[in-house]
Amino acid sequence: MALLAVAMLGMAILATRPSSGPNLRTAEVGQTDAALYRAIVARVRAGDGYYTAAAASLREGHYPLRPFITFRLPTLTWLQVTLGDRAIHLVQSVLGIAVFMAWGLRLWPELPRPILAFALLLLWVGIIGVIEPTSGLFGESWSAMLIALAIALDRPKWFPAAILSGLAAMLFRELAALAIVGIASIALITGRRREALAWLAAIAVFGVVVVLHAYQVAAVVRPDDLVSPGWAGMMGPSYFLRALATVTPLGMLPGALASALLILSWFGWWSIPADWALPPALVIGGYGVLIALFARADTFYWAMMAAPLSLVGLAFVPAALRDLVRPAPKALA
User: What global pTM score does this model have?
Assistant: First the structure.
C-alpha cells in the first residue's frame, strides 16, 4: 500500500509539470499528423499509388522519409479509400461495439454482476476516445481495439478469431507487434505451445509484410530526403500517463488526478489472480515502458495502443485494497 501511494503521489506531482504534456505540433511547418494522413488519403483517391502519395505528402509537410518506418503501413489508407469517410466511421464504431461485447462475454462468468457492470462502463469510457473520427485517422486507434479484441477472444473456442485480430492489429500499426509478442510469450510460458506457435506464425506473416513494405518505400525515397531524428525521447513514465489521459476522457480531469486513476487501474489489473487479467496488465505496462523510453512529445497518440483497457482495472481496486488491508493488523502485530 505504501508503494502504491508513493507511485500515485510521485506520478501525480510529475504530471503537473508543463513539459510533461503532449505536444500536438508535429512538423516544422506546424502540420499535424492527422492532416498528413488526410493528405495521403486524398492523393490515393485522386489516383496516386500509396507509396508515391505518402512520399509526396511527407516531403510537403517537411517530415522525414528515412528510415522506412517513417512510412505507415498502407492498410488504413486503403481501407479509407475503399469505404469512404462515412462508412469508415461506421466500421470503427462497430469494431468498438465488438470489443465491448467480447469483453462482456469474457468477464460474464468471472465477476459479480455489480463489478461486471462497472468494469464494462469503464471499458466503454476507454473505447470512446479511440472511436471518434479524428482518432480513426491513426492506425493506433484501430490496432488498440483489435488488440483488446484479440485478448478477449484468446480462448479455445474463439482462438482463430483471436489470431486474425492480432494479425490485423499489426497490419494497421507496427507497434501492435509488442502486444502480440507478449501474448505469444504468455501462451508459451503457460504451456500452451500450439497457441504460442500460432501467434508466432502471425508474427512471421507480419514480418514478411514489413519486408515488402520496406522494399516499396525504398523505391520512392530520394537521397536528399530528411532522416528521422530518432525515437529515443526518454519522456519518462509521467509522460505516458499524461498521453494516455489525453487519448481518453480522463483528459478532462486535472493531470494529477488522471495519473493517479491510471496507476490505480493498472494496480487493479495486477490484483486479479486469473489468466484473463495478465495480458491487459502486461500490454498496458509494456506500452508504458515503450512510450516512456521512445516516444517524443509529438507522438503522444501512441498511447492509444493501451487506451481501451486502461480504465477497466479501477473496477477491481476496492476488492484489491480490502485484500491488502485485511492482513495488516496481523503483520503489524
Answer: 0.90
